[in-house]
Design brief:
The protein has one helix and eight strands. The chain is α+β, with helices and mostly antiparallel strands. The chain is globular, with a radius of gyration of 24 Å. It starts with a helix and ends in a 5-residue tail after the last strand.
């Protein structure tokens, strides 16, 4: 290969490399790890910007009242295999979330906010 051909090949390669752009990573919703019950600020399935606002793991006989960012969450995910999660709402309603499932509060009528959770060792609601 002649020096001129070699230089042309190198310049051509550098031109291709120079036009390659790296894609920006998409902000993915954090995944709720097993064995937690996680609360989100929005529906994690439809919004990649969803953020976990609270994670709970302990089975209790009473309510774990929210403090800070978990209060008013819009979405809950229960990753536990054998336990249900009872979610207490500000108006007193209690919603049971089966194991390995989720629930969105966004379209509840009237509008409610989650304010406590109780994880139960019961296998179903």
């Amino acid at each position: 290969m002649s020096p001129r051909t070699c230089i042309a090949a190198i310049l051509g390669f550098l031109g291709v490399v120079g036009t390659i752009t790296l894609a920006q990573p998409v902000a993915a919703a954090p995944t709720c790890p097993y064995p937690y019950v996680c609360f989100y600020n929005t529906d994690e399935l439809s919004n990649p910007a969803a953020k976990i606002t609270g994670k709970y793991q302990v089975v209790t006989s009473g309510w774990q009242w929210f403090t800070g960012s978990a209060w008013g969450s819009d979405y809950v995910v229960n990753t536990r295999n054998d336990d249900v999660a009872y979610v207490h709402m500000t108006d007193g309603k209690v919603i049971c979330v089966e194991n390995n499932s989720s629930y969105s509060f966004v379209n509840d009528e009237p509008l409610r906010y989650a304010d406590a959770v109780r994880i139960s060792s019961a296998s179903n609601c």
